[in-house]
């Protein structure tokens, strides 16, 4: 026996004392190992001995009637915890013994010193291996449980941090937006623009970190819809056109005729991937061209974003898909970024069952190719509604409506009050859910409900209001700094009618109010109602000040062939024109909406002249402060 190796304990079980002696003698001749023997004449006796001290191996005579008691597997997954070697009279007994859980079996007539030593050693080693596997499995399961708890804690932490950061960001961006609308001195205006721009950049970083964390934690879900693939690609190109013009770079789109127009997939994730890829291409390409080429590749769509910019060193290509990694070098030092965009593209592509690849030559340009599966879809029926028009919100300046604002943050209260009162809403502020439920008895026209408040949160307050038959019809819009999808689902499950994630902008707030209130927003004043306050003319002038932006947006979408965007543009123009008393604007908006819905791109383009005329006439009617709109 090797030095330091302990003797092996063997329990010999047979009703025959002579057989027990034979088995001991054969094993004792093993010069390599030392054995300690114990004996039992019955299965019950053997079980009792095993309870006192677990042997390393059991030699069991198959003729025992209670053989099953010892040979039956004892582990939780069916594995034997004590190795059993059975000695049988016939082959048929060996089959039964092995089925019962024995590690090995031999017919007595073939018994020899070499066999019994080998059988005992193999059985011991086999069970030891099974024990190790079982222990490792338990360890793996424990690690998985701990990882699950860590991921849950991580998600909770991210949600909490999102809330804590978004809440002050709401005030920072909101008041910066209000200041930008004021006649500030040029130097101050530039400084406020810097605050707003960097606040938006910080918000984008927060969103990127949340997205990446959700994917890595396995908490990111795909939301498949039917969408117009060509429209999606053109809208991304149009959105980044201004950035490209700053770089004196062209963006062109090439669509494979073999691709179906309508496809099923996660439109939001695909759009985010393309925005990241095309945005990067524009950022690193000056005086050049960015080409977005979409092609069919079997049951997959392949979208390549190619540029003739600065390119990437071959040794750096693999690293660029890792989080927070940016390729260095003098040509890239001036380009800002977080190093998260490409990491998100890679994770989203893999989440969709696809991939992203990069080919690049330093100094010549790069091509990033996303390949994802798709299914052909059918054109969905357009329904009025939940989507808000992308126009500045249509609000009623002729009739005040009461808005109950339930928000515990004083800065956010001040921001919401400023925005709403500027649109002629009456505002009632409360600090928690308990007060929100009490003041709902006043039957406000709308409730803006923060979801995280003391005493009673927004979910509980909403559910209580909606349970009251007399108050259930009051529309409630949820305001929350928690950006996780489950929070949106939770809010709607509580009974809200609308939802805005913080930090909310003036336009997003008023657009959602316009969507939720619908026709109520444009209703005329009640009999005997007070006339609009004297500041209404200023609000109309503010509306007229947006005409140049509206016209530029219209022309940009016409150039990009963005009929879906033009449909929403026309819909928004129709509503806002009527609200502010410009029937001609409302009329041309209705025509644009109908032509885009047809779809008739040429008819939409021809409406451009009429749009210029009515906007110019409306601007002139509100005074010389309105912007000039030339042909």
- SS element count, helices: 20
By CATH, the architecture of the largest domain is named 2-Layer Sandwich
Largest sheet: 5 strands, parallel
What value does the Rg take, in angstroms?
37 Å
The structure class reads alpha/beta
Low-pLDDT windows of residues: 71-79, 328-335, 382-398, 524-536, 624-631
Strand content: 15-25%
- Fold-level CATH name of the largest domain: Heat Shock Protein 90
Q: How are strands sequenced across the largest beta sheet?
A: 2-1-3-4-5
CATH class value of the largest domain: Alpha Beta
Helix content: 40-55%
Report the CATH superfamily of the largest domain.
Histidine kinase-like ATPase, C-terminal domain
Tell me the total number of β-strands: 18
Instruction: Estimate the global geometry from the Cα principal axes.
Output: elongated
Output mean pLDDT. 78
Counted up, domains total 5
CA-to-CA gap between the ends? 103 Å
Kindly describe this structure.
The radius of gyration is 37 Å and the shape is elongated. The longest helix has 68 residues. The termini are far apart. 49% of the residues lie in helices and 16% in strands. It has 20 helices and 18 strands. A five-stranded parallel β-sheet has the order 2-1-3-4-5, sandwiched between helices. The C terminus is likely disordered. Strand 11 and strand 12 form a beta hairpin. The protein folds into five domains: 129 residues, Response regulator (Rossmann fold, 3-Layer(aba) Sandwich); 65 residues, Orthogonal Bundle (Helix Hairpins), CATH 1.10.287; 144 residues, Heat Shock Protein 90 (2-Layer Sandwich), CATH 3.30.565.10; 113 residues, Rossmann fold (3-Layer(aba) Sandwich); 84 residues. The protein has 631 residues and is α/β, with parallel strands linked by helices.
């Amino acid at each position: 026996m090797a030095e330091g190796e302990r003797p092996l304990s063997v329990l010999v079980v047979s009703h025959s004392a002579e057989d027990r002696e034979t088995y001991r003698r054969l094993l004792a001749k093993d010069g390599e190992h030392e054995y300690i023997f114990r004996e039992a004449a019955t299965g019950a006796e053997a079980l009792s001995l095993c309870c006192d001290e677990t042997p390393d191996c059991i030699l069991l005579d198959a003729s025992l009637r209670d053989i099953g008691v010892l040979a039956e597997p004892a582990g939780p997954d069916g594995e034997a915890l004590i190795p059993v070697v059975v000695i049988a009279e016939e082959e048929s007994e060996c089959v039964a013994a092995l089925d019962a859980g024995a590690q090995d079996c031999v017919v007595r007539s073939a018994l020899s010193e070499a066999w019994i030593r080998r059988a005992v050693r193999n059985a011991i080693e086999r069970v030891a291996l099974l024990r190790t596997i079982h222990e490792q499995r338990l360890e793996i399961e424990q690690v998985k449980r701990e990882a699950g708890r860590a991921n849950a804690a991580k998600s909770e932490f991210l949600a909490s941090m999102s809330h804590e950061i978004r809440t002050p960001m709401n005030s920072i961006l909101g008041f910066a937006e209000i200041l930008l609308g004021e006649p500030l001195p040029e130097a101050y205006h530039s400084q406020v623009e810097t605050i707003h721009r960097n606040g938006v950049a910080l918000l984008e970083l927060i969103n990127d970190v949340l997205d990446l964390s959700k994917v890595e934690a396995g908490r990111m879900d795909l939301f498949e819809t039917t969408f117009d693939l060509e429209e999606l690609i053109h809208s991304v190109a149009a959105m980044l056109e201004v950035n490209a013009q700053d770089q004196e770079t062209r963006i062109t789109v090439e669509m494979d005729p073999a691709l179906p127009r309508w496809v099923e997939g996660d439109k939001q994730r695909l759009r985010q991937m393309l925005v990241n890829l095309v945005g990067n291409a524009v950022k690193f390409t000056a005086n050049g061209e960015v080409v977005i080429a979409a092609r069919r590749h079997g049951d997959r769509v392949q979208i390549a974003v190619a540029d003739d910019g600065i390119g990437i060193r071959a040794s750096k290509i693999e690293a660029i898909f890792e989080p927070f990694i940016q390729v260095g070098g003098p040509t890239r030092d001036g380009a800002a970024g977080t190093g998260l965009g490409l990491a998100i593209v890679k994770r989203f592509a893999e989440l969709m069952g696809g991939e992203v690849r990069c080919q690049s030559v330093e100094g010549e340009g790069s091509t990033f190719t996303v390949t994802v599966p798709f299914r052909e879809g059918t054109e969905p029926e357009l329904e009025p509604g939940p989507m808000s028009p992308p126009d500045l919100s249509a609000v009623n300046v002729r009739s005040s409506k009461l808005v109950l604002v339930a928000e515990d943050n004083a800065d956010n209260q001040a921001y919401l009050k400023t925005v709403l009162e500027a649109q002629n809403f009456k505002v009632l502020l409360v600090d928690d859910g308990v007060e929100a439920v009490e003041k709902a008895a006043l039957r406000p026209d709308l409730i803006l409900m923060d979801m995280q408040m003391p005493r009673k949160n927004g979910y509980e307050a909403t559910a209580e209001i909606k349970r009251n038959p007399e108050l259930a019809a009051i529309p409630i819009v949820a305001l929350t700094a928690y950006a996780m999808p489950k929070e949106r689902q939770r809010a709607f499950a509580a009974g809200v009618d609308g939802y805005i994630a913080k930090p909310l902008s003036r336009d997003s707030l008023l657009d959602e109010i316009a969507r939720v209130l619908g026709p109520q927003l444009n209703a005329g004043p009640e009999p005997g109602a007070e006339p609009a306050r004297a500041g209404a003319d200023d609000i109309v002038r503010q509306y007229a000040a947006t005409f140049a932006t509206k016209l530029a947006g219209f022309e940009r979408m016409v150039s990009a062939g963005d009929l879906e965007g033009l449909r929403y543009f026309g819909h928004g123009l129709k509503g806002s024109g009527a609200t502010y008393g410009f029937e001609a604007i409302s009329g041309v908006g209705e025509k644009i909406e109908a032509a885009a819905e047809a779809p008739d791109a040429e008819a939409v383009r021809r409406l451009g002249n009429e749009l210029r005329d009515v906007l110019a006439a409306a601007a002139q009617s509100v005074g010389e402060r309105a912007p000039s709109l030339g042909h």
